[in-house]
Known about the structure:
Elements: H1 3-31, H2 42-76, E1 88-96, E2 99-110, E3 115-122, E4 132-140, E5 145-152, H3 156-159, E6 163-168, E7 171-178, E8 181-190, E9 196-204, E10 210-220
Antiparallel strand pairs: 1-2, 1-10, 2-3, 3-4, 4-5, 5-6, 6-7, 7-8, 8-9, 9-10
Helix pairs in contact: 1-2
Amino acid sequence: MIFRPRRKVAVRTSAITMRLGWLAQAAFVFTFNEHDLPNFSESSGRNLMKIILPIVLLLALPGFLASSASLAQAAEGWQDDLADHIAGTWKVEGQVLGHDAHHEVNAEWELNHQFLRIHEKTAAAAPEHRYEAYWFLGYDPVSDRYVLHLLDIFGGRFSETLGYGIRNGNEIRFVFEYPDGPFHTTFRWFPGNTTTWQWLLEQKDKEGKWSTFADFKLTPTPK
């Protein structure tokens, strides 16, 4: 386990080196043509490098910045003040398609603090049909957006689509572009003496109208 981060860094460094090599070759071809080669000399080479080097650095800069952001997050883990408030155990009550629902949620940080694993399931004493799901909440520092993976009892079909989210204050709204239409999942935090969360799930029908799929209120489970 100790060597995995180093191997990841080595792979990314190798990829950057290869990219720089391609850029240098491209700059060489762009700067030179076959008529110049017979007159090529050491001084010409130095002059050529003065031309190529700024081009390579300019083209490579975005890649360096993106890789640096990713490596920094990988080394330190993902830190997010809003997501931290989801960690813990919660009592979930609300409705799904107009029917009462009683769920439980346990959320913990996993994988070097890169993902918040949210385990949702129907409460043991609840009268409704059983449901269970795992949500993996993460963040992409390059695209500057949240990522949400949903795995549940309905199988792989719906897990193929990722949710991408943007934060606005104390809420994150995720958009899932499912094959049968877009779906919104909003995590909204209400700080105060009694800290609560609202999970609002909305779907768009074939006529383009939005409707509520589920609306949950999460309250902390007494310790």
